[in-house]
What we know:
- This protein is α/β, with parallel strands linked by helices.
- Helix content is 51%, strand content 13%.
- A hairpin with a 2-residue loop joins strand 2 and strand 3 (51-53).
Amino acid sequence: MMTIRSLLTVLVLAFLSGCSQSDRLRQILAEGEISVVSRNSPTTYYLYKEGAAGFEHDLAQLLAEELGVKLRMETAYSLAGIFRRLEREEVDLAAAGLSLTDDRSELFRRSVAYASMVPKVVYRTGNRRPAGLDELDDLHLVVLAGSSHEQALQALAAEAWPDLRWESVAEADTMELLERVDNGSADLAVIDSNEFGMQQSLYPMLAVAFDLGSEQDMVWYLPAGPEFRGLQRRVDQFLTRIQKDGSLAQLWEQYFGHTTVLSRIGSHTFARNIRTKLPAWRDLIRQVAKEYQLDWHLLAAISYQESHWEPEATSPTGVRGMMMLTNPTAKEMGVKDRLDPLQSLRGGARYLKDIRRRLPRDIQEPDRTWMALAAYNIGPAHLEDARMLTERHGGDPHLWSDVMAHLPLLQKREHYRTTRYGYARGGEATHFVQNIRHYYSILQWQDLSADQPGPPLNPEDYLPLALREKRFLAL
């Protein structure tokens, strides 16, 4: 007959066994995959030419690599959708630039803070700039539904500002708010400082009116179930470690600092580099261009735009070499050493040729080359999205001038939501191509002017001075 002690032992063992089997971290390690929900936006997660990108994606990828598993990113298009996925335990965590709030912490597990931001009230310059909540009057204020900003406004209205009014927008992307202020359908919007700093270049007329409250912590959220306790501890350990070793700060700088802004070197600087740097690489560039039947001026312009003719150039995103090749592209093009100038030039030339060859046959030159360059920068899939948007808006998808005008739409939510591959840095691709065209034309002009014969000789220049004076007097 089983004693009470034996019965208790069996129950404890069964309980521990059940906990072990339901521990989500163990399941993740056994299955080899972790699922993360995020937003499709420039500050969180999007697809780029080298694959998935975005601060939250890259941070989640570091976690997956530490766990030794694959990362599966999933997208939600509203804040409510993100937390609904967590509530149903359909994902392991939410990494979406989310603020720490008391309400959320009561419903979900959360990580230690890994960053912070300050809520900003943004307005359009040229309009009246309010200095605080007491100057909003009848101004139209918009905020994301379900956001910490909406909760803050609700608290302010309940405590001291009963006349405070705003519109809640059921989206997950602050671009919608910025777009409304920019086009005049709203007067003000509440935006986190990091998101506004990254997207302000798209809306140069927008500026900060005042801060809404103090600094807020950013955290990841996990489902509330007890089986996620182990994963929560592991996430906290991971975030604490990368804050201490500096890798988190490096990732933050990559996405939200100023070092990744596309450089616009002036023509005078380029001319100086033609004199000082190009001579060392001209013959090699000519050789590779001939191998791949490219205009060497074009290849030289691309390599300057990519690396400023520095064979050991390296970007924060990991692209390297004279042609700044990504690892996947280098492998696909047979490049074993990206820092070898010859291999890098050959890899870039071959990649451009492959892209140009795959474009629809009815795209003619020179538009074909300009579009191939855009795809070289942003990826062929996103170029096709831009061409589709061009046609949808009445433009000609075979003309670079029309496609160029629509590429920046890939950065605006109302447009990229309707495309197959989503958000992309279309404005950057536009500058990339236009810079190359500028450098290309200068290189061509310099070569043409050097090869052209001088002006016709004037025989009178060789006459004796006395004869020239007599001829002048005779006239």
